[in-house]
Amino acid sequence: MGGGALGLIACVVALCLLSVKGRPATFQQDFRIAWADSHVKEIEGGRAIQLILDQSSGCGFASKYQYLFGHVSMKIKLVPGDSAGTVTAFYMNSDTDTIRDELDFEFLGNRSGQPYTVQTNVYAHGKGDREQRINLWFDPSLEFHTYSIFWNHHHIIFSVDDIPIRVYKNNEARGVPYPKFQPMGVYSTLWEADDWATRGGLEKIDWSKAPFYAYYKDFDIEGCQVPGPASCASNQNNWWEGAAYQQLSPQAARRYRWVRLNHMIYDYCTDKSRYPVTPPECVAGI
Known about the structure:
The protein is mainly beta and about 290 residues long. It has helices at about 5-15, 25-30, 250-260, 280-285, and strands at about 30-35, 40-45, 50-55, 60-75, 85-95, 100-110, 115-125, 130-135, 145-150, 155-160, 165-170, 185-190, 210-225, 265. Strand 5 and strand 6 form a beta hairpin. The longest helix is centred in the N-terminal third of the chain and has 14 residues, at about 5-15. Strands 1, 2, 3, 4, 5, 6, 7, 8, 9, 10, 11, 12, 13 and 14 form a 14-stranded antiparallel beta sheet that branches. Keywords: Apoplast, Cell wall, Cell wall biogenesis/degradation, Disulfide bond, Glycoprotein, Glycosidase, Hydrolase, Secreted, Signal, Transferase.
């Protein structure tokens, strides 16, 4: 999903006009402040955003539009130092209640010197509780890293610097709901969650370290914008549905195995206390 994908998307846009052109956008082109506008600061001429968390409020922003399938990414620099109790989130959400679809990156703060934990989750037709957690193999507060969500009819891929960390396959044939009917917006938030975020809530936020800052840039959305063409639901003409994107490449599969073997610290599929009967999508393989 690098240079080759960008070339394909240019062709698709020119011929079909079904997609948003893939390009790093300024914040105001594609996004709006969702809450606490005093805590969201545009920097670098609108090409980057600073989110602020203090005792008065967290904050968040959201895309102006919703999308049905595609690829979204952002470069994020997370809260440095003692970030215990904070959560920085980047996610897609259908903005519906009882039948919510949602694809989550949640970056769980830590005590200084400990690894940053990333939790991913998938909600489909209102059913979530599919958490996986990995410890990042670098310090994500020192510089920007790219976090992306790829979504088509075959699978959902969460990636860090183009390395897959989570693959959720479409297992509708086995009776497992898959998010394919509801468009989703793109969101990001910085907020306080010290009742659960760090070591299950054992590590509380240290407000003497506030304010806490997270930074975003290179907002990139390549997706079928809704409302838009009726063909969004099938999307067969868009690059993300192409044969090359229906499974991981051999190199991506090797990287994915490396992450799961060396950095995964929690997988709901193997949590027998929560799921005495293994969820069907886990039996089928994720």
